[in-house]
Amino acid sequence: MSDTLPSDVIGRRVEVNGEYATVCFSGPIPSVAGLWLGVEWDNPERGKHDGSHEGTEYFKCRHPTGGSFIRPNKVNFGVDFLTAIKNCYEPDDDGKEHIVIIGNKPVETVGFDSIIKQQSQLTNLKEVSLRNRAVSYAGEKGGIAKACQNIRVLDLSKNLLSSWDEVICIALQLKHLEILNLRSSTLPLGGQSLRSCTSVQIGFAFQKGCKTSMFQSLQYLLADDNQISHWSCINELDKLQSLHTLSCQRNPLTEGNKKAQITRQFIIARISQLKTLNRCEILPEERRGAELDYQKAFGNEWIKAGGHQDPDKNRPNEDFVAAHPRYQFLCQKYGAPEDGELKIQQPCILKNQLLTLRIKCPNQLEQKVIEKQLPDSMTVQKVKGLLSRLLKVPVSELQLSYESPKMPGREIGLENDLQSLQFYSVENGDCLLVRW
After folding, report:
1. What is the CATH number of the domain that holds 166?
2. Does the CA dihedral 289-294-295-296 come out positive or negative?
3. pLDDT in tens, 294-308
4. CA dihedral 48, 54, 57, 60 (to 10 degrees)
5. In this structure, are 275 and 338 located in the same domain?
């Protein structure tokens, strides 16, 4: 049994006392102390509920008694993705087969279609694991039997696919695909577009900048340990209409601890519908901060390309729009960046990093409003420490938020003690609100 959680715990196949399950939830449950895993059992009679606890749904099961909450130290994670289900007929809730192809040993280089054809007698193939099976190409167009087009989970990790075109060719025939695992699959995932496939003639086209009908059901994409090195790839993912969870760690684009936070912000800003990135939830405050920082970071480039604060004169060139397809939308959402925000900062000079902030205590009417200059790199935790000494209140009792003149009537919480004021897009002239 395991005492620590794998980094990719959601979706992992696990074993508990000889019974197999899939992890669908990981985290705290407010009414019960500690960390819990929510699992859906292969055998629904093993479970107790449908993924809900005290009226809150933490995950969803196909069967009303198919789920359980389990402590992590009771779970064996030494089970490959989906390989615990044997390659045999298993009744599904609709009376049809629900089959998983197991593979964890390399075979000779093969096409995806040739493996799937072997399962053409199955009437409702839903989950397929072809991990480390030396799949290198998609195969013939239309080579996937109709019986296999209901696949919802596909594991192609540790295969030999060298082109995004091959993945697209597979996806065109799997219209119900919800989870795609491409970890360690040697894909460059570079500048290729979801609007065209050079090596696969698929006869597909859609309007520039619109969502694509390709991968129309895909919700989870796992692309860790590949060769993602171009922002154009991230831009293309914004076209996937159902994608809400992305994992893309240990790629050239995301390497380097110093730039990790900036890279995360840019990915969030470029993919509008993303809710979880690298197993961390994207809260509304983080999305807002990421999009505003992204606007500022490329504001000067936007102006040089023909961008303008006057909507009638705002006509950035095609190269800029291609590199930053969401930038114009962000200008409509937040307003065009102001000249003062576009000045190149000099991080070596402390005065250029200081924010003049008003500090107000809404629940303490006798407390006067204070004005302080704080570095934008200062963490929420350090701000609390400063205010604790200033106000003579224990750090543990302080709750911080802020108001901005740009968004009257809206209050934004500073909930993560380890993040900086800059992370939350706190700006000069904003008001910190302190409660205890």
Report:
1. 3.80.10.10
2. positive
3. 999 999 999 999 999
4. 10
5. no
